[in-house]
Amino acid sequence: RSNYPYGISSTTPSLVYYNFTNTSKIGKNATPNSGYTGRVYEPIDEFKGDIARSLLYFAVRYEGKLNNFNFYNGTSAANDTSPLDGTEEKAFEDWYVAMLLNWHNQDPVSQKEIDRNNAVFGIQKNRNPFIDHPEWVNLIWNQTPSVVSPSQVTNLNVAQNSAYFVNLNWSTPSDPSILGFKVYQNGTLIGTAKNNSFVADHLTPSTPYTFTVKAYNNNYVESAESNLVTVTTLDADIYAKDLMITKYLEGSSNNKALEITNKTGHAVNLNKYRMSIQFFNGTQYYFPAPYELEGIVQNNETFVILNPNAAFTCINNDQARFVTAAPQLTFSGSNYIELRYASTTVDAVGVKDQSNSAILGNVSLYRLNSVNQPNSTFTLSEWEQHPSNYCENIGTLVVCDAQIYAENDLSIYPNPVVGNELFVKGKKIGNIKNASIVDLSGKLIQQETAPFKNKNSINVQKLNPGVYILKVDDQSVKFIKK
Predict the structure, then answer these.
(1) C-alpha 395: how far from chain center
(2) What fold characterizes domain 154-232?
(3) pTM score of the predicted model
(4) What is the mean pLDDT of residues 156-170?
């Protein structure tokens, strides 16, 4: 079928350009209500339901990432070969949905389709729900569109302000027609939410922002704007500004793995994140298509991307969040690898446009606990080096950190603080490099370098009464100032 869209072909002989031996054909589009005038591929009736259910599952499976796929929208409806309409839920243009529903209803699920679904599940552990429950198709895509604007969102407010993110929430209108909410930052749409909260991230410290929210219904009619809130981000906080690559394992054969950690202070939607690798051909360096990430990673959560043929002793395919033999997990030690947000480099391992074999070949790199921010410029001193195939505690950063904390046996007293000194007790506290005090919003109040080199306390005389967090290198403990 080449890359022609699925559709209903003209039956006029001069407009049918190719007949296949199974009677499927390529011809001029004759699908009702479609403005597209180019060629389409029409399958035989026996396969139309199978194709419809596959495409509808594709829309559900990749909701939130459909706009990341490469497709040609054309310069007008007449040469627009993509039926995607830019929405997350409906996914396809109305004429295409109508055609798929017709194909689905005319060609019911067959035993061959069921067998294929079971076989796929046995390998991939996922299955097409519209084969198991064909009745769900019409429940989702055959709803009566709402013609009334949804109710206005009220009580939009800032639940948490930080240096690099703002956590918003609002009161949800009691309107059953509402499908979701659109969030606007400085008047520009930045995302959607299904419930009454949203994290606006990748912000700049000490910068004012305005936010509004609109509800939308199943006909994508929007409500009036909510109240406008204005907030200035903090100048600093205790959190990482973005996700970090925390482990890089370049072992023998297919032993390849990467670990990503979220220390941002909020849950992160991975839909715009991707892993990219640089290859070279002679003296020419190039990036193949990136490996797309998806889902939600919670604050203080870590996950692993693993080559499916890896044979590590500490992790297997069932324990990794992403298992792939994509180019990004076939690195040889010479390659530059980066974590991207959209097209922006967030964190990197290696140096672009050169061979990295001398530093990245046959080695396991573990990010030092003292490194709290991603770095788009690879710095080897931020990493602890281990032999090839070393993989202790991969994917278990929180547990590992807890063990380190226990070994250091850090404690503070008195708590609450009734005087001017907060005392710190623990093994080797003289080796602590940094200490900072922040309030519960994450605002930096006080900071010291090598705080316990010649003493075992921090002066808190200037703190107002309240609850604070003492952050010591990568450890945190809460205390009260009376």
Answers:
(1) 17
(2) Immunoglobulin-like (2.60.40)
(3) 0.78
(4) 95
